[in-house]
Amino acid sequence: MAIPATATEKKKRRRAKYILNIDRIPQLSDEEKKRLKQVSKRFAFRTNDYYLTLINWEDPNDPIRQLVIPQEREMNDWGRLDASNEASITVARGAQHKYGTTVLLLVNEACGAYCRYCFRKRLFMNDNDEVNYDISPGLDYIREHPEVDNVLLTGGDPMILQTPKLEKIFEELRAIDHVRIIRIGTKMPAFNPFRFINDPELMDLIRTHSRPEKPIYFMCHFDHPNELTEECIQGLKLIQEAGAICVNQNPIIRGISDDPDVMAELWNRLSYIGVPQYYVFQGRPTAGNEPFEVPIVEAYFKIEEAKKRCSGLAKRTKYCMSHEAGKVEIIGVDHQHIYLKFHRAKYAKDEQRMIVCERNDEAYWLDQLKPIPGYENEYYREEEKAEKGAA
Ligand code: SF4
Prior knowledge:
Elements: H1 7-12, E1 18-19, H2 30-42, E2 47-48, H3 49-52, H4 63-68, E3 90-92, E4 95-97, E5 102-106, H5 136-143, E6 150-154, H6 163-174, E7 181-186, H7 188-191, H8 194-197, H9 200-209, E8 216-220, H10 230-241, E9 245-251, H11 260-272, E10 277-281, H12 296-308, E11 318-323, E12 326-333, E13 337-345, E14 354-358, H13 378-390
Bound molecules: iron/sulfur cluster.
């Protein structure tokens, strides 16, 4: 068995080396490698040597291990590859527009490691061409839509891109006057903090383009307090000192973040370093994700329990489901009902609308919930029409 890196060795480490082949993980037995290789053939595998040092290999249920090491249950026939039907909101290759003010640009198709529960794992598959390295069609679309005041760079992870490439993207976005906010969806501070520690040019770039009334937001993705290492905190501090605002969003994932103690520790520690928890997402019913899913009711009560252990600053999060119909917040559960509210909606009529559904402790997703009479919304009406048409 490989000897874990000592604290001094970790301190000396200045960069992370990517690992794309499960055979290169010495802590796994030959038999495990053979079994898990089949899984990694279906859903891409990638990690790096820094992130692997966070795993306690003595514990088969270690949360960081669950996050990046494949497991055979991913092969269960469950869910869809594009669970929120992102194809339906794609307005140009690599650009999605669902909510009036926000456009997403998918700028690359790789991350610092691959989360086994990723809802965009389809991007990492060989036959996928949704990402556009040439973002000009998306930029043209944004130029023609003055209501768009913020653009989310996503993928994959934009922070994998080289700094000159990011510079070009930032410059093009800053040349569009109505774009006020650039958001960057990234797990790199967790997966590879050296990306920030080692690149002063990147910090200069953030300093140039994050302005008092046109800020850059880092939409960070931390799942577990074990990710908040010394190096990670150093990377976040550099980003903040360069003038960007950091927040955190992550899904509630079985075996990783579905424990109130873990959530409370994560949110409290994030509040100490100025990275407030922004959203907790319900896991999308994505193919391969059955082992990671937590039913809505269970997740709701665990999140409420975690909030009891947090300061007001640490528990500002909203628990939401990124459904095809919109971003739906789960605001309450009682013995009979689940109370939901559209935080963002696909249809203008649904904006801020409440939905009350019959309580269903088995449900993972909005489609499995039944609204009580009077609370059907546009989405359900559309579904109903489609069903009647098909009958
Ligand atoms: S960092 Fe985000 S996009 Fe990348 S694998 Fe994880 S969940 Fe997917």
